[in-house]
């Protein structure tokens, strides 16, 4: 088949490093940089295991580990579990708005408080992003598929999600939230909201990035069945094969 993907501005591979998800493993990511792509081209790359973050597309090329597995949810067949319905009820007062992505002091304050909490909980490196750094990291490039979901408790902004809305799918790219919201499972709630939006738009899949079964911060991604996983990474001109996770 002929690939619809134009030549990238840059293609590189990072120096191997200690994996931040699995102790004792060595991680390595391959990067491709595009200034702009059509939404159909973004979706084409996602189906082959790439993830988008700003102008960068990346996927793992780790030397001795293949535990990062691309996963996506089949939207039409998904039904919330009993515990997920309980999360929805706990967050019944939360309202969600889909807007054009931007950055403000309110965004930065929320992001920094969330990141500080994750630093305390999981040992993340400290972050103190400026408006320009946030925009460069999260919002760079010309991608009209990028949308922002804002979560409000009354008038207070308590969460921000960045998603790509594509011709046949939605990609869940990033989510951060008020640390005080944590007891009501905001991560689960935000994904349920994304699934609801995808169903409303008639989309077939929600892409969740990489599932790592033995990593607690990634293992939750198989709790939204039915899910499919990519059997192997392929080149742009090759057809990907996805299979049901339960197979």
UniProtKB/TrEMBL annotation:
Gene Ontology biological process terms, A to Z: ubiquitin-dependent protein catabolic process via the N-end rule pathway
Subcellular location: Cytoplasm
Residues annotated as domain N-end aminoacyl transferase N-terminal: 18-86
GO cellular component, one term: cytoplasm
This protein's record includes keyword Cytoplasm: yes
Superkingdom per UniProt: Bacteria
GO-annotated molecular function: arginyl-tRNA--protein transferase activity; leucyl-tRNA--protein transferase activity
Keyword Ion transport: no
Function: Functions in the N-end rule pathway of protein degradation where it conjugates Leu from its aminoacyl-tRNA to the N-termini of proteins containing an N-terminal aspartate or glutamate.
UniProt similarity note: Belongs to the R-transferase family. Bpt subfamily.
PANTHER family registered for this protein in UniProt: ARGININE-TRNA-PROTEIN TRANSFERASE 1, ARGINYL-TRNA--PROTEIN TRANSFERASE 1
Protein name per the record: Aspartate/glutamate leucyltransferase
């Amino acid at each position: 088949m002929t690939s619809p993907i134009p030549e990238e501005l840059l293609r590189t591979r990072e120096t191997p490093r200690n994996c931040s998800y699995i102790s004792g493993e060595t991680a390595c990511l391959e990067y491709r940089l595009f200034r702009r792509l059509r939404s159909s081209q973004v979706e084409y790359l996602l189906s082959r295991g790439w993830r988008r973050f700003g102008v960068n597309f990346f996927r793992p090329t780790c030397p001795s580990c293949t535990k990062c597995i691309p996963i996506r949810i089949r939207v039409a067949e998904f039904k919330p579990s009993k515990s997920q319905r309980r999360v929805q009820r706990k967050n019944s007062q939360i309202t969600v708005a889909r807007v054009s992505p931007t950055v403000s002091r309110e965004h930065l304050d929320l992001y920094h408080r969330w990141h500080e909490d994750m630093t305390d909980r999981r040992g993340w490196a400290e972050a103190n992003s400026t408006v320009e750094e946030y925009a460069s990291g999260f919002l760079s490039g010309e991608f009209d598929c990028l949308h922002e979901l804002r979560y409000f408790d009354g008038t207070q902004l308590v969460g921000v999600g960045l998603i790509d809305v594509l011709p046949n799918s939605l990609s869940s790219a990033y989510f951060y939230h008020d640390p005080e919201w944590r007891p009501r499972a905001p991560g689960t709630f935000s994904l349920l909201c994304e699934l609801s939006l995808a169903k409303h738009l008639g989309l077939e899949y929600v892409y969740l990035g990489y599932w790592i079964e033995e990593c607690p911060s990634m293992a939750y991604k198989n709790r939204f069945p039915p899910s499919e996983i990519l059997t192997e990474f392929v080149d742009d001109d090759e057809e990907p094969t996805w299979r049901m996770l339960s197979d």
